[in-house]
Amino acid sequence: MSFVPVAKVGDIPEGQVRIAWVEGHPVAVFNVGGAFYVMDDVCSHDGGPVAEGPLEGFEIECPRHGARFDIRSGKPLSLPATAPVAVHRVRVVGDAVEVALGVGDSSAVGSGDEGGVSSGSASESPSPVSPDETPRNENENPNTQNPNGSATASPSDGVAPSQQEIAVRSALEGVMDPEIGLSVIDLGLIRELHFFPDRTLVRMMLTTPFCPYAPQMMEDVKNATMGVIALPTEVEIMPDAWSPQLMPDPSLLGFSY
Ligand code: FES
């Protein structure tokens, strides 16, 4: 791929980003500490523009759902993104910042290199920055016995899970979060299971507040639970903020926090 001029050095002050189009493709050109970095302006989460969000050091935060990326490598640093954003080679020739698409390897070039530095002399990029509800009523207190004497169970109360709970959790291992490609159990989204004489209540979290797959996941959770317990199932979304620390094994995400 050939280099294409996208801006003048002075057009992109330190700590700023400029969106450019290269061969019909939107890219974000960042200036961090006087060096330039180029990443697709396409978020790997939902395909939206990513570079309009806040830039902090080498981290850009997508304005849509808050995923963060390392602009040097394109690696995701937080959910809901799990895939990298493509990065591209950049060089400075004279006072022109030039970008070559499709190299798949971001390189930084200092703005002091205006003397006609070739792409091959691009400097090494730094290492990537590793990036309860109050009971609704006495019949639904998650942590007590209901007046009918049917035990309720909460996975977080330290009590050994019942056979019912084990069976339901096992079934829920087949319910995937399609955004992340892990099950609701692996993600630690299923926080509480309550077994009432006439119904089952599942209280779960979402990885992001406005997860577009929430309705489908709730339906899948409901159906999987009813496949084990032949009673109506109610699925309730908890308002609590999810974090990878709630996962039984956060390393399944493939990146660290
Ligand atoms: S589109 Fe970027 S985090 Fe969702």
- Average pLDDT, to the nearest integer? 78
| CATH overall fold name of the largest domain | Rieske Iron-sulfur Protein
Range of helix content: under 10%
Note the run of SSEs as H and E: EEEEEEEEEEHEEEEHE
The fraction of residues in strands falls at 25-35%
Please supply descriptive tags for the structure shown above.
9% helix; elongated; binds FE2/S2 (inorganic) cluster; GMP Synthetase, Chain A, domain 3; seven-stranded antiparallel sheet; Rieske Iron-sulfur Protein; 15 strands; 257 residues; mainly beta; 2 domains
Descriptive account of the structure:
With 257 residues, the chain is mainly beta. The chain has 2 domains: 4-121, 3-layer Sandwich (Rieske Iron-sulfur Protein); 138-253, GMP Synthetase, Chain A, domain 3, CATH 3.30.300. It has helices spanning 163-172, 214-226, and strands at 4-8, 17-22, 25-32, 35-40, 55-56, 59-61, 68-70, 87-93, 96-100, 109-110, 176-177, 182-183, 190-195, 200-204, 233-237. Strands 1, 2, 3, 4, 8, 9 and 10 form a 7-stranded antiparallel β-sheet that branches. The longest helix has 13 residues, at 214-226. 36% of the residues are buried. It binds FE2/S2 (inorganic) cluster. FE2/S2 (inorganic) cluster binds next to loops. FE2/S2 (inorganic) cluster is lined by residues 43, 45-46, 48, 50, 62, 64-67, 80-81.
